[in-house]
Write a structure and sequence with these properties.
Radius of gyration: 20 Å
CATH superfamily of the largest domain: Galactose-binding domain-like
CATH topology of the largest domain: Jelly Rolls
Subcellular location: Cell envelope; Secreted
Structural class: mainly beta
Organism: Carex littledalei
Largest sheet: 6 strands, antiparallel
Number of helices: 0
InterPro entries: DGR2-like_dom, Pectin_Meth_Modulator
Main location: other
Keywords: Glycoprotein, Secreted, Signal
Shape: globular
Order of helices and strands: EEEEEEEEEEEEEEEEEEEEE
Distance between the termini: 43 Å
Strand order of the largest sheet: 9-11-12-21-14-17
Helix content: under 10%
Length: about 325
């Protein structure tokens, strides 16, 4: 079982964004008490993008939510769904710095909850995000998911990326979570990923969708390739990933033994506009033996135009 983080009270720590060389920093709380608000203060690089990662746990069986803000941006992060079996989940929130300095505030709104209880907060980190470039080798940006929020080494539960309606700027650059539930950002230190260091696990069935809008030329044929696998986290069963692009659809079946592995898939489609939405979601809901939510893993997403549609793709 993963170690349980400790809740905090009156925690204030400086976090560096790195004005000359972007860096990451983490402030961990050490007091065992809990209150309605946390503040962290630190320098920022104006105009740059950042991702905040924090761990939280509910203390009441109610629809709790947290307001996360760095002035002038703020979002409500819902905590209605518990994704892990230990009660602690890590969440990510993204923002663009409008000023050279800022206060990070994590606030318990406490609108509908019992005043005697509230969420516990611990292990807060800030990560500088590099905007992923558009290259001639891949129309999809950040298709390998290597750019994303900070992942805690001591908490192997991954990081939840909330729905896009909760974030103005995604903590997973170039990607949106167009669903009611979050997706999970995972790394190869704690999970099996098809390629590189990081990937995304679709943990909430059809309520967990990952999307990106790309530039396309109407009438042109494109080839979308990606990897589907399991995270070697004990999530077993028959999984299916649905991929959508323009009018093209593809269902990719994958049988998971819960020990890792992946397969490649390819979807060819004809663009119908100057912008095309590429979407991935899990057709089914999956749960591990301990009750935690899980699902198929998506990684290594590649989109290229096809110069000769009649030629067979390898």
């Amino acid at each position: 079982m993963s170690p349980k983080p400790e809740p905090s009270r009156n925690t204030r720590a400086n976090v560096r964004s790195g004005q000359n060389a972007p860096s990451k920093a983490m402030a961990r709380a050490r007091n065992k008490r809990e209150e309605r608000e946390r503040n962290w203060y630190g320098p920022l690089s104006r105009g740059s993008y950042y991702a905040i990662t924090f761990s939280a746990a509910r203390t009441c069986a109610q629809s709790e939510q947290l307001n996360v803000s760095v002035y002038p941006e703020s979002s409500l992060v819902p905590m209605q769904t518990i994704y892990s079996s230990v009660g602690w989940d890590s969440y990510a929130w993204g923002f663009q710095a409008k000023h050279s300095k800022g206060d990070l505030v994590i606030h318990n709104t406490g609108v509908e909850e019992d005043p005697a209880c509230g969420p516990l907060i611990d292990s807060v980190a800030i990560e500088f995000l590099y905007p992923p470039p558009l290259t001639k080798y891949n129309i999809i940006k950040n298709g390998d998911f290597e750019e994303g929020p900070y992942l805690f080494a001591v908490m192997p539960g991954g990081v939840l990326i909330p729905p896009i309606i909760e974030d103005v700027h995604s903590p997973l650059p170039a990607w949106m979570v167009e669903s009611l539930k979050a997706v999970k950002y995972i790394d190869s230190d704690h999970y099996s990923v098809p390629q590189g260091k990081c990937a995304v696990e679709l943990v909430a069935g059809r309520e967990s969708a990952l999307a990106q809008i790309v530039r396309t030329i109407p009438g042109k044929t494109y080839s979308l390739t990606f990897s589907v696998g399991d995270a070697a986290d004990g999530c077993t069963g028959y999984m299916t990933v649905d991929a959508y692009a323009a009018r093209g659809t593809l269902k990719v079946p994958y049988e998971s033994n819960g020990t890792g592995g992946f397969k490649k898939a390819n979807l060819k489609f004809v663009a119908t506009g100057n912008r095309t939405r590429v979407t991935f979601l899990s057709s089914n809901y999956h749960m591990k033996f301990d009750g935690s939510l899980c699902g198929p893993v998506i990684d290594d997403v590649l989109l290229l135009s096809v110069h000769n549609p009649g030629r067979r793709l390898r």
